[in-house]
Amino acid sequence: MSAQKKAESLGIKFSKQEPGYLAMVVKTGNLLITSGHVSDMKGKVGAGVSVEDGKAAARECAVKILNSVWNAHGTLDGLRVLKVLGCVNSTLEFHEQHLVINGCSDLLHEVFGKTTDGYHARSALGFAQIPTNSAVEVEAIFEIKS
Predict the structure, then answer these.
(1) Does residue 7 sit within a domain?
(2) What is the DSSP letter of 36?
(3) 113, 52 in Cβ contact below 8 A?
(4) Residue 139 pairs with which residues in a beta bridge?
(5) Range(s) of the domain holding residue 89
(6) Beta strands 136-144; 31-34: pairing state
(7) Phi and psi for 141 in degrees, rounded to 5?
(8) Could you give the CA distance from residue 47 to residue 127 in angstroms, rounded to a whole number?
(9) DSSP strands (E only) in the chain
């Protein structure tokens, strides 16, 4: 099943985005580089937001990224996920940011394949604060294969 069809089968809806203050995706050569996409979930992981809630927020960021990539490229087909940067709004004591960002990686694996085009490099970092008090922010880089 193609990446586009797989995403749709998972219930992901794609909608047109109006250009904003900054580009959500920039194309350079055969790369699509996304801006950070924040979760609607607010708060700090480790103080009111659980790891499972954080994972859901990271998945939500991935859905938003896929919609932005779809807007820039017209389809998810023919893409490979290269890099994900996950930022977790977390307490100083919290140290499981990697488990939170698995929510994003898991979805990308489902859509693009865990051992093929969805197999990506990743960083998961804790932050003292993220804009709008979002629980998670994620950015990604995709390669246009064809």
Answers:
(1) no
(2) P
(3) no
(4) 85
(5) 25-144
(6) antiparallel
(7) -125, 130
(8) 13
(9) 25-28, 31-34, 37-38, 44-45, 48-49, 79-89, 121-127, 136-144
Report d(CA 89, CA 94) in Å as an integer.
Answer: 10
Q: Is 52 part of any domain?
A: yes
Across the range 84-112, mean pLDDT stands at: 98
Contacts of 53 (CB under 8 A, 6+ apart): 41, 45, 135
pTM: 0.97
Residue 5: inside a domain, yes or no? no
Query: Residue 146: is its pLDDT beyond 80?
Result: no
**Does residue 141 surpass a pLDDT of 80?**
yes
How many independent structural domains does the chain possess? 1
Q: Provide the CATH number for the domain around residue 46.
A: 3.30.1330.40
Residue 108, domain member (yes or no): yes
pLDDT band of residue 78 (cuts 50, 70, 90) is very high
**pLDDT digit string (tens) for 58-72?**
999 999 999 999 999
Amino acid, res. 101? I
Question: Could you read off the pLDDT of 122-137 as tens digits, one per residue?
Answer: 999 999 999 999 999 9
Measure the CA–CA gap between 102 and 96, rounded to whole angstroms.
10
- Amino acid residing at 43: G
Q: Taking a C-beta distance cutoff of 8 angstroms, is the pair 123, 86 a contact?
A: yes
